[in-house]
Amino acid sequence: MEDWEQILTAAGHRITAPRQAIMQVLAQSETPLSPQEILERGLAYHVRLGLVTVYRTLELFEEFGLACRVHLAEGCHGYVLRQPGHRHVLLCQECGRSIEFSGQDDLDTLVARVAARTGYRIADHWLQLFGVCPACQEIET
Amino acid sequence: MEDWEQILTAAGHRITAPRQAIMQVLAQSETPLSPQEILERGLAYHVRLGLVTVYRTLELFEEFGLACRVHLAEGCHGYVLRQPGHRHVLLCQECGRSIEFSGQDDLDTLVARVAARTGYRIADHWLQLFGVCPACQEIET
DNA sequence: TTTTATGCAAAGTTTTTGCACTTTC
DNA sequence: GAAAGTGCAAAAACTTTGCATAAAA
Q: Within 7 Å: CB of A82 and strand D?
């Protein structure tokens, strides 16, 4: 049994064909996918998959930290799988490929400084970086 | 003539009642507002204001860096006025109030480190902090 | 008076809800 | 077999487009 299946099972949720299909799709994608895209690819694994289920499954995955929503400048319909422990997304503006990184330490300094300056008690943060991945840099030259 | 009016005028855009109404609404709000909310409040300043115009105006404001889109966990429909120079948003999870901060230096370190580690050429970043503002902390006690 | 902007209506998308039927455990 | 999950259809919410009218410079 895979890791995510244990997490859901432990919370009383069931492992179903649609959920496995959606996880499969997310796991095989290097770029964030919209619910619509997930549906299209997911049909290959589960013919009767419906868009409604994709929405509900993404919500579930997000609730358990298995996937996270990626907000792009044009919209906010992308979802990517979330590696445990890692928190931030780095997106390539050319090809859309996304990787994750941690870099927690540096952020902690910043967060502490902002907290001290503003009086806010800071509970969470959300960082995304945008750039050009090594592969796309090569194409340019 | 206000600053934003000069910016738009210089680019050949006109200062209209709807635009003034929307700017007024944004300026007076401490929390991010959705197009729908902007419409509702904007009607107080310009009775014939329409939702379509709100969308088009926000797009225009964003293009000129006058407003920016704020992405919240629940959705991504909020807009706030953007103070020049500042880049990041800090949101109160209790009351929704948002302030901006810069904190560029700390981020530069992080960005440089991530760039070195991943090989990405990082062009832009996007940081939002979430927490509890001083006022809401007092209410708790 | 010329050009830009508006607002209505309508179309296009995206997301959510209700409910009977399936599937998992 | 009971509870959780699915998928259809339909509704709701959000966003964009076309076009005739209105307003700004």
A: no
Residue of A nearest to B73 (CA): A69
Structural domain including B123 reads: 85-141
> Residue A115: left if φ>0, alpha if ψ -120 to 50, beta else—which one?
alpha
Q: Is the CB of A92 under 7 A from strand D?
A: no
User: Average pLDDT, stretch A58-69?
Assistant: 90
- B134 plus B99 within the same structural domain: yes
pLDDT (tens digit per residue) in B8-44: 999 999 999 999 999 999 999 877 889 999 999 999 9
Residue in A closest to B130 by C-alpha: A124
pLDDT single digits (tens) A10-30: 999 999 999 999 999 999 987
Judgement on whether residues B11 and B74 belong to the same structural domain of the protein: yes
